[in-house]
Structure formats: C-alpha cells, structure tokens
Design a protein that fits this description.
Strand content: under 5%
Distance between the termini: 49 Å
Oligomer: single chain
Number of strands: 0
Shape: globular
Order of helices and strands: HHHHHHHHHHHHHHHHH
Length: about 400
C-alpha cells in the first residue's frame, strides 16, 4: 500500500486534475438537482428506467420486441424496426437502471433519490472520460497538455449536459468507451516489442480494450467503427509484430462480443435479432453537397465547447504550417476526430449527433498537443497568455450557460 501512494501517482498534477474534475462534478450535480426539481421524468428517462428494471428483475430483454413498451411518438422508429432499438443494446438500459435496482424497495418510491441514481452512472462516466483525457494528454504532451485538455473538457456544456442527462440522451459512456478503445489499442501496440510473451503479458490491456469496445458499441451501435479503427492503429504502430497485434485485437474483440452477449443475458436468438436490426454506419452521400451540413457541424461543435470553434482552426493552421507539430501524438487524435466528424456529417440523424460528440475528446487532445508544443518555443509567453485566455473565457462562458439553463 505504501508503494501505491507515491508522489509519482499522487503529486501536484494529480491534485490539480482532481480539483478540475470536482468542478465538473459540481456543474453536473447542479444540473441533476435542477432536473429533479422539475418533479417528473421525461419520456426518455422513464423508458430507460422501466426497460432496464424489467430485464434486471427477470423480465424481457430491454430494447427488443419482447417487451411491453409504453406507446409514444418515439416508438414509431421501433415499430419500423420490428420493435428493436436500432441504436442501443440492452447494456444502455441496464446501466441506467443498475443503481436503482440496488436500492432497497422501501426507498424506490422516493423520486429525488431515484433521479440521482438514474443519472449517477453517466456522471461517473463523464468523470472517467475527463480523467482518461487528462491521463492520455499528460502522457503524450506533458503536464501542460494534460491541464489544457482537462480544463477545456471540464467546462464543456455538452459533456456536462450529457453526464447529467439534461435535455439530451446520456452518451458519456459511449464517449468514454470510444476514447478508451482508440488509445488502449495504441498503448497495446507500444508494448509489442517488449521481450516477453506478448499475448499473456497484455491480458490486462486485452480485457480493457474488450471492455471499451463493449461500452462503446453497446451504448451506440454505430460506434462499431472503432473495431477496424483499433486494428488499423495496431497494425500501423507494430509493423514488425502484425500477427501478434492481430491476435491481441481478435482476443479483445472476443471479450467484447462475450460481454455484449452478456447484456442480452446470453439469449442467443435475441442477441442475433438485436444485431440484425441494429443501425450501424449508414452514410447519406448526398448531404455532403449541402452547405447546411457543414454549418450544422460547426453549430454542434460550438455547443460541445465554444473553445473548439476558436482553438481547432488555430491549432490546425499551426499543425499544417509547422513540421514540428506533425508527429503521431498530434496526428492520431486529429485523424480520429476528422473521421468522426465525417461520419457525423454523413449521417444526419441521431447517430450523426453522437459522432460529433465522440470527436470532441480527440479534438481537445489535439488542441492540447499543439498548444504544449507552442509552449516549448521562444514564444512561450505569448502562447501561455493565449491558452490562459482561452481556458478562462471558455470556463466563464460555460458557467454563464449553466446559469442560463437554470433560469430556463
């Protein structure tokens, strides 16, 4: 235990990151409290809770045709899909209802307590995504990069709203799973040249990659795109160990498939029908010829974080003009973000909105990487002033936006 609590693991960087995450938690708690103060569930919350509870208590599998879903306008898409949820596996419903199931029966009628428990998993996912973003950015770009990425994330209105399930579907679990799958595959690739038996040595990362894939795809079927994306990174980063990389990737996919099947409680037929009715990536190529497609993408990015509308174009200019900034640590998150934005623009529906949200953590990492590179130049003071100004302005705007939501 003494070795665990070391200065390397719990020093000043960890303390500052923890304080930033506490501000994120406070903002989420503020929105959760206001949502509970409304005194009623919205339609999405009620469906998630009832579906999850039904499966947890031995009833029909959530999000499938084998249940008595309450009739509403939202069921039209399900009726066209033979009653199956085209976007989410049962995992999405089970996660929502899990804390409520553990609540003693005498407390389950307390609306306020149930409201906190329904949102708790997504607040936790939001915190874990922030912690992962800080950890990855710090490993890639140093302390400065970690602080920049986390500071921008912790004052991102869209991630706060998604974590608190305020007027939007909670997708922080999908975002954390996607971010984890990409960077875990990169981390695995960097261990393939170690002088050990790589398959056995990587069993922890195999499990982590499998869990990340399950969380991403189980929360949003269209995120199956991360499966070939993870393989592509592994093959690129380990050209001399591609067989080992493929075996590790296949093992992780096997773990992910088993866990996804477990969310159907191992009902093989229902699992197959759920996959068969899933809406994976369906690109509408015609939308790329419409200017409003790109305008909508910019609007969505601005709603995620106002800082991205300023920081991303500037970072992209620096990246293209400055050879020093064009290395793998900056290029990887940029390429993933561009892919997700492309998919988001080409799928003008619910999946498209979520692809834009999935791109945001990678854009934050890219901005942090280019900014940290600038801090190592003779113009450090100017870059530092710009970074401080951007982070402070973004935080003030987020707090103002949060206050406005409370009055609305």
């Amino acid at each position: 235990m003494g070795r665990f609590f070391t200065r390397e693991r719990f020093g000043q960087p960890q303390i500052l990151a923890g304080l930033l995450l506490l501000t994120f938690l406070a903002q989420c708690a503020c929105l959760v409290r206001r949502g509970i103060a409304k005194g009623q569930w919205d339609a999405g919350e009620e469906v998630r809770l009832k579906e999850g509870l039904r499966q947890w208590t031995g009833g029909a599998i959530a999000g499938t045709s084998n249940h008595a879903r309450p009739r509403s306008d939202a069921d039209a898409a399900l009726d066209l899909n033979d009653g199956y949820d085209p976007n989410h596996s049962p995992l999405w419903y089970l996660v929502s209802a899990a804390p409520y199931v553990m609540l003693p029966a005498r407390f389950q009628s307390m609306y306020a307590l149930a409201g906190w428990l329904l949102r708790a998993p997504y607040v936790l996912f939001g915190l874990l995504l922030g912690a992962s973003l800080w950890y990855v950015s710090r490993r890639l770009y140093g302390n400065a990069g970690g602080y920049i990425a986390l500071a921008l994330y912790c004052f991102s209105p869209e991630f706060i709203r998604s974590s608190a399930a305020w007027g939007t579907l909670p997708e922080t679990g999908a975002a954390w799973g996607t971010f984890g799958a990409v960077f875990t595959s990169i981390a695995v690739s960097h261990t393939l040249y170690a002088p050990r038996e790589v398959i056995l040595w990587n069993w922890r990362r195999i499990l982590l990659l499998g869990l990340s894939l399950t969380l991403a795809i189980g929360s949003q079927f269209s995120l199956i795109i991360v499966v070939p994306l993870a393989l592509a990174f592994m093959l690129y980063l380990a050209p001399g160990r591609r067989i080992a990389a493929t075996v590790i990737w296949a093992a992780a996919c096997g773990v992910g498939l088993a866990l996804l099947c477990a969310s159907y409680f191992f009902h093989a037929h229902i699992f197959w029908q759920g996959i068969r009715h899933a809406a994976f990536v369906r690109i509408h190529w015609g939308v790329f010829a419409e200017p409003k497609t790109y305008q909508q993408m910019l609007v969505q990015l601005g709603q995620t974080s106002a800082a991205l509308k300023i920081a991303v174009p500037l970072a992209l200019v620096v990246y293209l003009a400055w050879p020093r900034a064009r290395y793998f640590g900056n290029s990887a998150p940029l390429l993933v973000a561009v892919l997700f934005l492309f998919l988001g623009s080409g799928t003008p529906n619910y999946s498209g909105l979520e692809f834009t949200l999935m791109a945001a953590p990678f854009l934050l990492a890219f901005v942090a990487g280019v900014s940290s590179d600038g801090l190592e130049t003779p113009g450090r003071k100017l870059v530092l002033a710009c970074v401080w100004g951007l982070c402070v302005a973004n935080a003030l705007w987020c707090v103002w936006e949060l206050a406005g939501r409370g009055q609305g």
